[in-house]
Each structure stands twice: as C-alpha cells, then as structure tokens.
Design goal:
Elements lengths: L3 H21 L12 H17 L7 H32 L7 H19 L2 H24 L2
Helix pairs in contact: 1-2, 1-5, 2-3, 3-4, 3-5
Length: 146
C-alpha cells in the first residue's frame, strides 16, 4: 500500500544511490564502461526505500536512525551484489571461466574488490549522513503523511 513514508524512503535512497554512484565513478579504473551504472543504482534505491525502509517507519527517533542505517546497508549490499554479478556475466560472455562454479565464485571475488575500492572515508561519511537523514525524513513523512 502506498504511503508517504514509502515514497519518502524511496526518494531518499534514490538520491543517496545517485550521489554515491557519482562518488564511486572516479575511484574505478579509467577504462571502466559504466553503462547503466547510475540509472540501475537509482532504481535499486527506489526499490530498497519502498520495500525495506517505508514499512518500518513511525516507531520513534532511535528506530528511525536504525531504519536509515538498515536501508543504506541493504542498498549497498544489493548494489555491490548486482554490479558484481553483471561484471561476472560480462566476463563469462568472453569465456573467462571454465565452469559455472568458477563464475559464481567470481561474483564474490569481484564484489570483494569493489568493496575495497569504495571503502573510503568520504563515501563512508556520505553513507552515514544519508542514512541519518533518510531515516529521520522517512519517520517525519510517516508522522505527518497520515
């Protein structure tokens, strides 16, 4: 059921995904073709905000902060996972793997490489601030959106 909290959470996490995507792009090698990187992350932010954060709104200030942290964590988890799976698929189409088990393991290897690349202080601070703001705005939207 659509609510103001779900809409606010979706918008907040979509904006967070956009900003973090722009922060991640300069950290990657120059030869990286980003393709649908930013739009895919924005859609992922919309979905995670709507499904994860929206229903949990309206339980108080502490729960709002925890909700924001959980939403941003899920956004990053799925973002890295989907981008890693896409990269594995791209490499698999070039016959880089000997079998399916090697390709599945490569998803985790590529994901670990991505996490080490994006694990910087500016991105961590941006994620923390975005989590706090998203959680509080979602809680406020739930309170006044009824």
């Amino acid at each position: 059921m659509p609510t103001a909290a779900r809409l606010m959470a979706a918008i907040c996490l979509a904006v967070t995904a956009y900003v973090i995507s722009l922060m991640v792009m300069p950290l990657m090698p120059e030869s990286t073709d980003f393709g649908y990187f930013v739009p895919l992350n924005i859609v992922l932010g919309l979905v995670v905000g709507w499904v994860v954060m929206g229903p949990r709104a309206g339980r108080g200030a502490t729960a709002a902060v925890n909700n924001g942290l959980a939403g941003v964590f899920v956004l990053m988890f799925w973002g890295v996972g989907i981008q890693s799976a896409y990269e594995m698929f791209r490499l698999a189409m070039r016959h880089r793997y000997d079998g399916p088990s090697e390709a599945i393991i490569a998803i985790f290897t590529i994901g670990a490489e991505y996490v080490t690349i994006i694990a910087t202080i500016p991105i961590g601070v941006a994620l923390l601030v975005a989590a706090l703001i998203s959680g509080v705005l979602t809680d406020v939207a739930d309170r006044y959106g009824r």
